[in-house]
Design brief:
Elements (H helix, E strand, L loop, with lengths): L2 H13 L12 E7 L3 H4 L3 H11 L4 E7 L3 H10 L17 E5 L9 H7 L15 E5 L16 E3 L3 H14 L5 H9 L4 E2 L4 E5 L5 E6 L7 E2 L25 E5 L1 E2 L10 H4 L4 E2 L2 H9 L7 E5 L9 H10 L3 E4 L9 H9 L4 E7 L3 H6 L6 H13 L4 E8 L6 H25 L5 E7 L16 H15 L5 E5 L2 H11 L9 H5 L4 H8 L3 H5 L14 E2 L4 H12 L18
Length: 574
C-alpha cells in the first residue's frame, strides 16, 4: 500500500463520526464492498445500515472497501497496489465473507477492476474453498441476479434486516470446509440464491427455456422483506464530510410506493408500501450522534408520508432544517413547501415524467396537466427559487407529438415560474432532466422494448430545438450509451456476464457482443412474448405475473390503472 493511499484512508476514517472499530478475535469477519467510490458508497443508506448492523453485534466485524478515486485507481493499477479495507488496511482474502452492495446496473462495470485489485479471481468457478465466499446484496440482487451468476457465489434476495441474522448464524455454525456442502446449506435458507445450484437451458431462438434447481433446493427464491420497518435502522449511521450528503443526516420515511407507476422497479420490488411511525422517526433523531442540523428525508414518494409537515415543523422547532430530493405533483401542499423554504431549500424536483396526458396514462402516473401546473405554482409561491423537472423519452407508443408535448408543458411551467418570480423579485432557473426509458424486471413494462438509439437521438434533437431557446431553462440528458448498457444488464441472462470484462475495458456494447457471439438487440430492443420465461423469474417477488401482464396491456391501450391500497390483493403481495 502506497504511503499516499494509506494516509488518505486514515484521514477519511479520522473524519468520520459513528465509525465502528474492534479487534478481530474469534468474530465472523465481513468485507463490505461498494462497487463505486467512497463518495458514492457512504451516501447509500442501505450500505450504512448493513455496516452498522454487523458492527453492533459482538460476534461479527465488518470493514469497508471502495473503488479508489480516479487518480488513486490509476496509481494502484500502475503500481500493483492491492485493494485494502478502510478500517485496518487488510486484504479482501483475509475476511470470512465478501459482501457486495450493488444498487445500479452500470456499477457492474467496476467489478473486474475491483476483483483485480482485490487479487481475487473474477469467476466463481476459479475460486475454491481457500477463498472467502462472495455475496451480492442490494437492489440488483433481487431485481435480476443472472448477469452476475457466474461471478457471485450467492445473492441476498430481499431486505438485509430479515436475511442477515440467519445468514450470520449459519456461517458461524458451519465448520465444514466442503464448499459445495456449505452452499447447499445456504441455498435452503429463505432469501438466499446460489446460482451454481441452478441449471439453465435455452431455446433455439436464444430465449430461456427452463431454470432447474438441484434436488432439495427451492425452485424459486422468495424475496424477504421486513413487515414492520420500525424494527430496522432508518437513519445515517456514519457521518463523513466527503459525500454528496455531507451536510445532512438521512432519515428513511418509508419503503416502497403505492402509486403503481408502470416503469418504476422500486415501486414494485419493495411492495408492500410501509411507513415508519412518527414516534420511531423522532426516536431515531433523538439518538443521532451527529450535530448536523439538516435532515434529508428519504422515500420513493416523500410527500406521500402522512404527517410530513408535522415532522418538518418539529425539526424546524429544534433548530434543524429539512431536505427532500423530490415531491409528488398531486400531494405537495403549501405547508410542506413552507417547511422546505424555511429550511433554505433552493431547488425542488417534480416528476411529470411525460408531456402528454396519453403518455402519463401509459405509465399510470395518475396526474393531469392542471395538477402539474398547480404544483408548480405552489412551489413558486412558496419561495423555492429553482425547479427541476424529470421527464422520460422512448416510452411505449410514444410519438413525435408526445415529445413536442414535453416542450409545450415546459413552456407553460416557465410562464408560471417567470410570472411569480418577477413578482417576488427572484427569477430562478428551470432544469429539465430527460432520460431514456429503460424497461426493468418485475414491472408491467418488463415486456416492452427499449427504443433504438437512433430514434432516441432524433427525439433528443427534437427536444433540444424546443428547449434551448428558452431563457433560464437548462436541459440535461443521460448518455444513451450508458442507458443501453443499463438495459442490457437489467434484462440479461447469465450468458451476458462474460462480456463484462470487455465492457469494463471500454469496448462498445456492440463490439463486446459481436466478439462473444451475442446480439445486443435480443436483450435491449426486443419486445418480450407474453409467456416468455424471464431469467429474473428465479426470484419470487410475490407479484402475480397475470397482474403485471394485465397492467402492460392497459399501458399499451393508454389506460390508467389503480394505485395500491391496503388489502387490495390485486398484485398478489398482500
Amino acid at each position: 500500500m502506497s504511503r499516499r493511499m494509506t494516509e488518505k484512508l486514515r484521514k477519511r476514517l479520522a473524519a468520520e463520526t459513528g465509525t465502528h472499530s474492534a479487534p478481530w478475535g474469534g468474530r465472523l469477519t465481513v468485507a463490505l464492498v461498494y462497487p463505486n467510490t467512497y463518495h458514492q458508497g457512504m451516501s447509500n443508506l442501505g450500505f450504512q445500515t448493513v455496516y452498522h448492523w454487523l458492527n453492533s453485534r459482538e460476534d461479527t466485524l465488518c470493514e469497508r472497501f471502495f473503488l479508489p478515486d480516479p487518480d488513486d485507481l490509476a496509481e494502484c493499477q500502475r503500481s500493483g497496489t492491492p485493494l485494502v479495507s478502510l478500517e485496518s488496511q487488510r486484504l479482501l482474502e483475509d475476511f470470512d465473507l465478501i459482501a457486495f452492495s450493488i444498487s445500479f446496473e452500470n456499477d457492474y462495470l467496476n467489478l473486474p477492476v475491483l476483483f483485480e485489485l482485490g487479487r481475487l479471481p473474477l469467476w466463481r468457478k476459479e475460486r475454491d474453498e481457500h477463498y472467502p465466499l462472495v455475496l451480492c446484496g442490494g437492489v440488483c440482487a433481487f431485481l435480476n441476479p443472472e448477469p452476475l451468476a457466474d461471478i457471485m457465489d450467492l445473492f441476498a434476495v430481499g431486505e438485509a434486516e430479515v436475511i442477515l441474522p440467519e445468514l450470520v448464524k449459519r456461517l458461524q455454525g458451519e465448520v465444514s470446509t466442503d464448499r459445495v456442502k456449505l452452499l447447499h446449506s445456504l441455498a435452503c435458507m429463505p432469501g438466499i440464491y446460489v446460482p451454481a445450484l441452478f441449471r439453465v437451458s435455452y431455446r433455439e431462438d436464444g430465449r430461456v427455456q427452463t431454470m432447474e434447481a438441484d434436488a432439495g433446493i427451492p425452485g424459486r427464491v422468495k424475496r424477504q422483506w421486513l413487515a414492520d420497518i420500525d424494527q430496522g435502522q432508518s437513519r445515517t449511521c456514519v457521518t463523513t464530510p466527503e459525500t454528496e450528503f455531507a451536510s445532512m443526516e438521512l432519515l428513511e420515511l418509508s419503503r416502497g410506493c403505492p402509486r403503481g407507476c408502470r416503469f418504476c422497479a422500486a415501486g414494485f420490488i419493495y411492495l408492500p408500501f410501509r411507513e415508519h411511525s412518527h414516534s420511531h422517526l423522532r426516536q431515531q433523531l433523538d439518538e443521532s450522534r451527529t450535530d448536523r442540523k439538516k435532515i434529508g428525508l428519504v422515500a420513493a414518494a416523500v410527500s406521500d408520508y402522512r404527517g410530513l409537515a408535522e415532522l418538518g415543523e418539529s425539526i424546524l422547532a429544534e433548530g434543524g432544517e429539512v431536505s427532500v430530493s423530490s415531491v409528488r405533483v398531486d400531494t405537495i401542499d403549501a405547508d410542506q413547501v413552507d417547511v422546505l423554504a424555511r429550511s433554505g431549500h433552493k431547488t425542488l424536483a417534480l416528476a411529470p415524467e411525460a408531456g402528454s396526458q396519453r403518455m402519463r396514462d401509459v405509465i399510470n402516473k395518475g396526474v393531469e396537466e392542471a395538477q402539474i401546473l398547480n404544483a408548480v405554482r405552489i412551489v413558486a409561491e412558496g419561495g423555492i427559487p429553482n425547479l427541476k423537472l424529470y421527464f422520460m423519452i422512448g416510452l411505449p407508443g410514444e410519438t413525435s407529438e408526445d415529445v413536442d408535448a414535453i416542450g409545450a408543458l415546459t413552456l407553460k411551467i416557465r410562464t408560471i415560474w417567470e410570472e411569480i418570480g418577477r413578482r417576488r423579485g427572484q427569477l430562478g432557473r428551470l432544469t429539465l432532466s430527460v432520460n431514456p426509458f429503460v424497461p426493468k424486471p418485475f414491472t408491467p413494462l418488463q415486456w416492452a422494448p427499449m427504443e433504438a438509439r437512433s430514434s432516441l437521438e432524433r427525439k433528443y434533437r427534437q427536444l433540444q430545438r424546443q428547449i434551448r431557446p428558452l431563457p433560464n431553462v437548462d436541459l440535461n440528458q443521460e448518455s444513451l450509451k450508458l442507458a443501453e448498457v443499463q438495459a442490457f444488464f437489467a434484462r440479461g441472462d447469465r450468458r451476458i456476464g462474460h462480456i463484462l470484462p470487455a465492457l469494463a475495458e471500454g469496448n462498445s456494447l456492440r463490439k463486446a457482443c459481436r466478439d462473444a457471439g451475442l446480439d445486443p438487440a435480443f436483450y435491449v430492443t426486443r419486445e418480450r412474448l407474453e409467456d416468455e420465461c424471464f431469467p429474473w423469474e428465479v426470484i419470487d417477488q410475490g407479484l402475480l405475473r397475470s397482474y403485471l401482464w394485465k397492467e402492460y396491456c392497459q399501458a399499451l391501450d393508454a389506460k390508467c390503472g389503480q394505485a395500491c391500497y391496503p388489502g387490495c390483493k390485486r398484485c398478489g403481495i398482500c
